[in-house]
Structure formats: C-alpha cells, structure tokens
Specification:
mainly alpha; 17 helices; 4 strands; about 55% helix; protein-disulfide reductase activity; thiol oxidase activity
Length: about 450
C-alpha cells in the first residue's frame, strides 16, 4: 500500500510538471501542442516503419576510437561492453571481469552492443555503395574504411537504460556544457545532473545571448532531455533469469525534470526537446530536393523493397514540408557577413568537438546512440546551412554542391526518430497519469 501511495504521489507531481509543458517555444512561433499532434498522429507512425527497413536499421560506426581528451575509462566499460565481431567468436573472461560488482556487471550486460549479423546481411552490406563528401560536416566523421568500423543492427540495440551512471557519465555532459556550449563562463553546472544548481540565474544569463548561441545551447539541452526520457521510459524494472521487464520509471523521470528538484530547469529541458524536434523537422523539409532526384535510391540490393522505401521516404519528407509552423532558419547568421561567417564556423567547430566527446563514453551502447544522434543533428545543421547548394541540385547526375553520405542519411532519420519517441512517451505518460488520477478520484469518492 505504501509503495502504491508513493507511486501515486510521484505521478501527481509528474502530472503537474507535464501541465507546464505547453504553449509557444522561445525564439520561434511554434507551440508544443501542434508538435505533439503532428508527431504522434501524422509523422512518427510512418517514420517508425521506415526505420525498421534494412537501409536504416544498419549503421556503420567505429566504436573503438580512443578518447581524444582524457585517458581514464569507465569502470564498467570493459570486456563485456566491447563490440563483438560480426562472426561468432568466443568471449574470454579475465579474472578482473569475474570480480566485478553486481551493479557493474548489470551495467556491462545492458551496455554491451549486439553486433551479430547474419551471413546474408554481411554479404549485402558489402554491396552498399559508400560515398564521402564531408568537407562541410558538423561532426567528426568515422573513418568507414577503418577495420574498426562495423555495421550495427540498431533494432538489436535499442536505446534504453544501461546502468551507465555516476561521475563518469556526468563528466561527459559537464565537458559538453562547460567547454563546448556558447555561454558566459559564469554559468556553471553541478557535477551531477540530479543536483541542484542556480537554475533561474542560468536561464537569465542564457537569455542575454544572441539567438544562434541560445539555439546551440537549447539543441544540446534538448538532446540531453531526449536521452534522459529514453532511459526513464525504458528502464529495467525487473531483472531475473526468466525475463527482463522494461517500463516507465516515474521516480527517475521526476528526478531529472521536476521543476522543484531542478530549480526550474526541468520544464525548460523538456521544451528544449521540442525545439530540437523543430530544428530536425525543418532540415527534413529542406532536403526534399536531394531525395526526389530519380538517380537517388535507398540501395540495399532488393529492388522492390528499395523502391517502396523511397516512396515512403518521400511521403515522410512531403509530410514534414507540410508542417504549418516551421522554424525560420533565416534568423541565424543574419547580421554582419564577416561576423556571421565567424559565428557559423564557431558553431560548426563546437559541434564537431561534441561529436568527438562521444568517443569518451564508457558504455558502448550509450556511445553508439550518442554518436548516431550527434551525427544526425550535425547532418540536420549541415542541411539548414546549405540552402543555396540544395536549391542548385541538378535533377539528374551527381550532386557536387551538396551531398549526403549513406552514414549521414541513416543517422539523420534515426536521430529524428530518437527525438520523436520521447514526445510519444510524454503523451503516454500524460495518458497514464490521467487514468491513474481518475481511478484514484473514483476510489476516493466511493469511500
């Protein structure tokens, strides 16, 4: 009874929190309700189907790059967390691995990347053409020619709770916020994301930044919020030898987003998630001409499937273009040309640094999704800042002015899917709270 009452109280707190997430977003004319409806009922169901196709479920990534910033590695990021080769290979356990604490063993199991691919799939991916034109990339691009770059089946490695936490995990985000975000040096974040800070003063200082720098901070904050919602919504609730039970962890969600516990930052983090969605949605609407060309194909070797997937892709992009309240990217870098160009280059370099920080993540499954989502967001920014080049894309033949690699395409759509899922999860959470709140009121009235 006590646990049920505690859950109900937590749900009521979360319900009040979600009531705060409404209305217009800062720096744009779009509102939360329009995005909710558009994502949950129009775009996401189609996108989910597309992401299950062979072209989008296999992502080539190098998870073995050394951290370029520091030498220490996560305590749990050892053998079992390492990438397994595609072919069947026996795993040898060291004495050190056998003496891990139970918590670290759990993090290790949950954080390991499943890279098993069938022989048929291995043969197919070798046929997929690879192009690379990343001179204007916003990300540190993995060397797909490297022997350490391997294909990972994203459907076998869902983004969810892995047990990766503590100072090592907090250090990643602190470095991102402290060293790579445009903000006054007086703004400091507490080491733990669950600790209290000076939320209101931080918000006021950020309000004094130019729109581009505020946008950069909100994109990183939105990405952080998206990841935290995934972990809270797909939390390991029960782990037995019979089964693993995954579901919503209300307490975890409350700790990360409650207005009181975060000193007002929580609701802003959730709104930044919607801002991130809006930026990525705008990129999809702008890149339609690149994918509309007859020469472009989602090549996997299966002609029928490839044709159907391209049709579905174009429907999604046309749907994205029809969104009524798009973000106006022309507000970016619109001042003095020299200053605007410098700011744009700083913007790009900051983001490239953040993509490099992902090689320092100790949990390899977290590293996988971190690298994919930063590359996806970087690709979205590349699209938004390439409007003239996209307009000049020829209807046929090679596109020299603007090009997307297969890796960029896969990361772009999967990253957008990662951003859409938390918005769906917030709707589920609202519905769950409505139901529980109603039942609780009914029981109270009956008594």
């Amino acid at each position: 009874v006590g646990q049920a009452m505690l859950l109900l109280l937590n749900l009521q707190v979360v319900f009040k929190l979600l009531l705060l997430i409404h209305g217009y977003l800062d720096d744009c004319i779009c509102d939360v309700e329009t995005i909710d409806s558009f994502n949950n009922y129009k775009l996401f169901p189609r996108l989910q189907k597309l992401l299950e196709s062979d072209y989008f479920r296999y992502y080539q990534v190098n998870l073995k790059k050394p951290c370029p910033f520091w030498n220490d590695i996560s305590h749990c990021g050892i053998r079992d967390c390492a990438v397994k080769p595609c072919q069947s290979v026996r795993t040898h356990y060291s004495e050190e691995a056998n003496t891990l604490t139970e918590e670290c063993e759990q993090a290790e199991r949950l954080g390991a990347v499943d890279e098993s691919l069938s022989e048929e799939t291995q043969r197919a991916v070798l046929q997929w053409t690879k192009h690379d034109d990343s001179s204007d990339s916003f990300c540190e691009v993995d060397d797909i020619q490297s022997p350490d770059a391997e294909y990972v089946d994203l459907l076998l490695n869902p983004e969810r709770y892995t047990g990766y936490k503590g100072p090592d995990a907090w250090k990643i985000w602190n470095v991102i916020y402290e060293e790579n975000c445009f903000k006054p040096q007086t703004i400091k974040r507490p080491l733990s994301p669950l600790a209290s800070g000076q939320g209101e003063s931080r918000f006021q200082l950020l309000s004094g930044l130019c729109v581009e720098k505020r946008a950069f901070y909100k994109l990183i904050s939105g990405l952080h919020a998206s990841i935290n919602i995934h972990l809270s919504a797909r939390y390991l609730l029960q782990d037995t030898w019979l089964e693993k039970k995954w579901g919503h962890n209300i307490t975890e969600f409350q700790q990360r987003f409650d207005a009181v516990l975060t000193e007002g930052e929580g609701p802003r983090r959730l709104k930044n998630l919607y801002f991130l969605y809006l930026i990525e949605l705008r990129a999809l609407s702008k890149v339609l001409p690149f994918f509309e060309r007859p020469d472009f194909q989602l090549f996997t070797g299966n002609k029928i499937q490839d044709t159907e997937n391209k049709k579905l892709l174009l429907k999604i992009l046309q749907e994205a273009k029809s969104f009524p309240l798009h973000f106006d990217e022309n507000s970016f870098f619109s001042g003095n040309r020299k200053e605007a160009n410098k700011l744009k280059e700083d913007f790009r370099q900051h983001f490239r640094n953040i993509s490099r920080i992902m090689d320092c993540v100790g949990c390899f499954k977290c590293r996988l999704w971190g690298k994919l989502q930063t590359q996806g967001l970087g690709t979205a920014l590349k699209i938004l800042f390439s409007e003239k080049q996209i307009k000049n894309i020829p209807e046929s033949g090679p596109s020299y002015g603007f090009h997307l690699t297969r890796q960029e395409i896969v990361s772009l759509f999967n990253a957008f899917g990662r951003t859409g899922i938390p918005i769906v999860e917030l709707r589920k959470l609202r519905h769950r709270e409505d139901v529980i709140w109603s039942r609780s009121c009914v029981k109270h009235l009956v008594k």
